[in-house]
Specification:
Blueprint (H helix, E strand, L loop, with lengths): L2 H7 L1 E9 L5 E4 L5 E4 L7 E9 L3 E11 L25 H18 L9 E3 L10 E9 L2 E8 L2 E7 L9 H13 L12 E9 L2 E7 L7 H7 L3 E7 L7 E5 L3 E5 L2 E5 L9 H15 L6 E5 L5 H8 L3 E6 L2 H10 L4 E4 L2 H8 L4 E4 L8 H9 L4 E6 L2 H11 L3 E9 L9 E8 L3
Parallel strand pairs: 3-5, 6-21, 11-12, 16-17, 16-19, 17-18, 19-20
Antiparallel strand pairs: 1-2, 1-4, 2-3, 4-5, 7-8, 7-10, 8-9, 10-11, 12-13, 14-15, 20-22, 21-22
Length: 430
């Protein structure tokens, strides 16, 4: 019997000490290795079956809870036992926030080399009904189409998710159900192909749909007719390619904290309106923009912060790769300058600055962007991150020339292990 087969036959009793960045509980095997077990919580005593064994860690499946730790609850979603769309529904919301504070502090200590207390995590007003955007996978088989999220610990399988999903805004939930009912047997109104990705987004003026993958055009007009809220349909055939509108309006209007925004294609906005508003207010408060202050808003998106900073008299340069988002930023913030392109290519010539704000994707900043900050440091840096590990990595790459001035987290994604962090750094070498 090989090591993998031996591991799969082992059942052990362990204690769970914490929550890992992916949402699994973390304990220790008798030999000291870390073991990750989904659907467990700090304080649990559990019998688990080891399924993957490595030199320094193992992954196991929960067999039986022997003792429940504090903060546990019965998950309210009927799909939670199978669906991987959520990872922390078995914890009450206070325990979820505590776990996220530990995840952020641990990443900054272990990867970034900073010693700090666990940060505050600003609560979401609603722990359910908050997502204005969701991405679903559609898989076609002989028996029909299945559409939903990846299965728990089995990403090759899709769990069929209908309007019972508790994360979606009511408008998004209604549109998703109408879309499922309106695309016909085998999702025939969608483009062809065995597997598609659908991103549905709700806005003040209606919903938009982005279809990724597939072949042919499908019948987008039929989808528009079947889903009353649907205003625009876009298609992207290859990853990274520009999306193409195939039906409906060129843009869908949204009211974002009093700012009217035209959303096209893959233009990014945070998924949680209420928490995003609190985060943006915090960034502006920490930015303290003054008349004539030089500010770089990197990864500026549609320019929400760019416009608000410029309105306070700062000299703002926004940098954005997405052409549609950059065009919207330029239209809404004519007093600022918008540079279109990759941050790693455009940042260095713009430095130094009084303040640099970065809000990169989950993969974090490119190494060249970190080098630009290290070589020509701004006086202050505000880093908005959706991944504690890449945040800590980038801060370590930037080097010891900065000190942490403040850290605050925001519970942008309740029921999951994801957390948004705003880290303020001050340059100590200039």
């Amino acid at each position: 019997m090989n090591r993998s087969a031996r591991a799969s036959a082992q059942s052990v009793r362990i204690g769970i000490d914490g929550i890992a960045a992916g949402g699994a509980g973390v304990g220790r095997l008798p030999d000291g290795r870390a073991v990750f077990v989904a659907r467990t919580a700090p304080g649990d005593e559990a019998t688990v079956r080891i399924e993957v064994e490595k030199k320094r860690w193992a992954r196991a499946r929960l067999v039986r809870l022997e003792h429940e730790g504090p903060g546990r609850r019965s998950p309210p979603c009927p799909l939670y036992a199978r669906c991987g769309g959520c990872s922390l529904q078995h914890l009450d919301i206070a325990a979820q926030r505590n776990a996220k504070a530990v995840i952020v502090a641990d990443a900054l200590r272990r990867i970034g080399g900073f010693e700090l207390d666990e940060p505050e995590v600003v609560a979401a007003p609603n722990e359910f009904d908050y997502r204005n955007r969701a991405t679903f996978t559609v898989v076609r088989a002989a028996s029909g189409a299945v559409a939903g999220f990846h299965a728990l610990e089995a990403p090759g399988r899709i769990v069929d998710v209908d309007a019972r999903c508790m994360l979606l805004e009511p408008a998004l939930r209604d549109a998703w159900q109408a879309l499922r009912e309106g695309w016909g047997p085998g999702a025939e109104a969608l483009p062809g192909g065995p597997r598609l990705r659908l991103t549905l987004r709700s806005a003040e003026a209606g919903c938009s749909l982005l279809i990724e993958g597939g072949t042919g055009r499908g019948r987008p007009e039929a989808l528009l007719a079947a889903v009353p809220a649907l205003r625009s349909i876009w298609v992207r055939r290859e990853p990274g390619a520009a999306p193409r509108r195939v039906a409906g309006e060129n843009a869908v209007r949204d009211d974002w904290g009093g700012d009217l925004i035209a959303l096209r294609g893959t233009v990014f906005l945070q998924v949680n309106r209420a928490v995003a508003e609190r985060l943006e207010e915090h960034v502006l408060e920490r930015a303290q923009p003054a008349e004539g202050q030089s500010v770089i808003d990197a990864y500026c998106g549609v320019g929400i912060l760019t416009r608000r900073l410029a309105a306070r008299g700062a000299r703002v340069t926004g940098i954005e790769l997405d052409a549609d988002a950059a065009a919207e930023a330029a239209a809404r913030a004519p007093m600022a300058r918008i540079a279109v392109g990759r941050v790693e290519e455009l940042l260095a010539p713009e430095l130094p600055a009084d303040l640099l704000i970065v809000n990169p994707p989950r993969t974090g900043m490119h190494e060249l962007a970190c080098a630009a900050v290290r070589e020509t440091p701004p006086r202050r840096l505000l880093y908005v991150s959706c991944d504690p590990a890449t945040l800590a990595r980038d801060v370590a790459r930037i080097g010891p020339g900065f000190q942490i001035r403040s850290v605050r987290c925001f519970d942008m994604f309740p029921q999951t292990a994801h957390v948004e962090t705003v880290l303020e750094l001050a340059c100590v070498t200039s």
